[in-house]
Write a structure and sequence with these properties.
The protein is of the alpha+beta class and 87 residues long. The protein has a two-stranded antiparallel ribbon with strand order 1-2. The radius of gyration is 17 Å and the shape is elongated.
Length: 87
């Protein structure tokens, strides 16, 4: 489990393992969700799962086949993360 230390100014560094898992880059915004005594840190950008059904429900003349849609994504979204290799 990655850990981080809080400084006297209330700052911390996001561990590399977490940055890699979330495909974070400098300037990215993070959200903190408090659940009792636990905090979940997520990115503010939408997940690809938020777009489920978007292509299927698009106007057929404007919809892109899935392989073409994946080609439009920045490489950091295609990098292997939790769950194994991308592809």
């Amino acid at each position: 489990m990655p850990t981080s230390t809080l400084t006297t100014k209330g700052r911390t560094t996001v561990p590399k393992e977490v940055r890699d898992a979330l495909a974070l880059e400098p300037g990215d915004k993070l959200s903190c969700q408090i659940h009792g005594g636990r905090v979940a840190i997520t990115t503010d950008r939408p997940s690809l799962l938020d777009f489920e059904g978007f292509i299927r429900n698009s106007v057929p003349s404007r919809a892109l086949p899935l392989p073409s849609s994946r080609a439009l994504l920045p490489p950091r979204f295609l990098a292997g993360g939790e769950g194994g290799e991308a592809g």
